[in-house]
Automatic annotation (TrEMBL), chain A:
The chain crosses the membrane at residues 31-53, 60-79, 85-106, 127-143, 174-197, 209-233, 253-272. Coiled coil: none annotated. Its main location: membrane. This is ABC transporter permease. It is found in: Cell membrane. Signal peptide: none annotated. Pfam families: BPD_transp_2. It is a multi-pass membrane protein. Keywords: Cell membrane, Membrane, Transmembrane, Transmembrane helix.
UniProtKB/TrEMBL annotation, chain B:
The lineage of its organism: Bacteria, Pseudomonadati, Pseudomonadota, Alphaproteobacteria, Rhodobacterales. This is BMP family ABC transporter substrate-binding protein. Pfam families: Bmp. Residues 1-24 form the signal peptide. InterPro entries: ABC-Purine-Binding, PnrA-like. The keyword Signal applies. Residues 30-315 form the ABC transporter substrate-binding protein PnrA-like domain.
Amino acid sequence: MIDPLSVFLLLLAAATPILFAALGELIVERAGVLNLGVEGMMITGALAGFAAAHATGNAFIGFAVAALAGAAISMLFALLTQFLLANQVASGLALTLFGLGLAALFGKPLEGIKAPPMPAGPLKVNWIVWLGLLMVPLVWWFLNRSRAGLILRGVGENHDAAHALGYDVRRVRIAAIAFGGAMAGIGGAFISIATVLQWTEGMTAGAGWIALAIVVFSNWTAPGVLAGAWLFGGVTVLQLRLQAAGVSVPVQLLSMAPYLATIIVLVAISAMQKFSRRAGGGAPGSLGRNFHALR
Amino acid sequence: MKRRTLLASAVAISAMSLALPAAAQDEPLKVGFIYVGPVGDGGWTYQHDQGRQAVEAEFGDRVETTFIESVPEGADAERAITQLALAGNKLIFTTSFGFMDATINVAQKFPDVKFEHATGYKRAENVSTYDARFYEGRAVMGTIAGRMTESNKIGYIGSFPIPEVIQGINSSYIHAKKVNPDVEMKVVWAYSWFDPAKEADAASALLAEGVDVILQHTDSTAPLAKAQEAGAIGFGQASDMSAFKPNPRVSSIIDNWAPYYIERVGAVLDGSWESKATWAGIGDGEVEIGEITDAVPAEVKAEAEALKDKIASGEYHPFTGPLNKADGSAWLAEGQTATDEELAGMNFFVEGITAEIPK
């Protein structure tokens, strides 16, 4: 009755915003930084991307501007946590609130305007969806096979050791935060430019928080992030799709499934520490701890 | 519960500081409005603010209006309403279902101030309620939907399974079925009044099921954007949504609160205001049908307009028997029409809709 291919294509699109945001946050956390400002960076990208796409008539320019805007606002968080050594949790929450408020303020004149059309990619699936899928092996390769990725992981695991080896912990972390901001920005812009085709206040509606949950679910690995994005995005799509097909399902049960899965995965991870480490995962040792070279 | 809310107590407080001029004897009547969303939402709150502006245009210097937007439906609402009352407003409109208890509470403390609550059912000496018969407009949309569908599948995005929304689904289905006996209705619940991304996904899910007409009881234009991509059609909700004309948006159901607001402000000005419950529809101009575009064939357009006129004149009621409930039990006999009490508590689908109402 339900065509699996159509469900899969819907799932690909529904998972894209959280996939981008979660891949970005994965890099940030592997560098040892916990940025809870994902939602704020996403909404900033959604607004800036939409404004640029509308002004130029080109959706792709919109995505580029969204990446820049996301990276720019993430620098506020970098300033607070890397230079002023502010608490990362509080700074991240502040970034979310700030982003939401700022976007609402500057978004007023854009209400009621339609996004420019976007050429469909292969299989009638948006190009950005394919870009998101491509980012998964790229991020995996970067973390596990590149020298820069090794340094980044070293900084995240033990920043004092990385510092002793002569690596600039702060610079690595700022670069990671900027990357995370850019990815969250693209994810947000996907909602305004490709999904809703309009700007509306508060339109990211919690996607950033789901992205944060997915990073934990993924055991801090890129393939795990993809699986998580599909699980969380897929449940939403499947739930709506089942309703449309007239199959009555307890919606609440389905909605809760990804969170249950996250808990189960976390339990499994801690039970199999060794295996998890060998698979290249696990929470970075310095996650959430500020680094100060003089200490 | 009525409308989705965002932050705003800070906005509310700063708005209030603007609304505290000193009282004078021959002052204009001060009228306050509490909105659940931003004025720029393009839907529900936007239409209420159009009504407020109509009041200003009608009465000029005799009135002075203030509004507070994006007021959450919780403790903040009571504070915002109290502020408006303290600021000297003698008539206060609270425009969302979730403001009901807050309105009653504040009204008890300010017996000299008159309150009007939209879509609620609790009244008092100084509290009136008002609502619109959206289901009348849905009958017209259903007629167009039934005629326009080629796949004979119509999709409906519901917000919450409450009587107001169920009335709309039933009314659309009954009238689509009247003009097209093969029509099927598919229902998806979004559990939100306003969540653009989710509404888009809901529309995609319906389109993947083969529907080619989408009706919605959620406020964003996201379903119209999805309909456009798929070559399907849809309708504007609460507001005209004219950005999507002439296709996919082929018509719309518009809430027009202006006549009511003008009447009620006028009643306070001439001293004839008293507490009552109002439930007005197409005939009173409170529910409007937006322009039916040329994407709709002329004869379908004429048929839809004829139905609209019959509802407006009171010649026809959208819920007229014979009608059975979805479980097969009899509801309305031949020629019998539903009472307002039945409509206000409607918790069942009519016969022919195979979807289930979530509990």
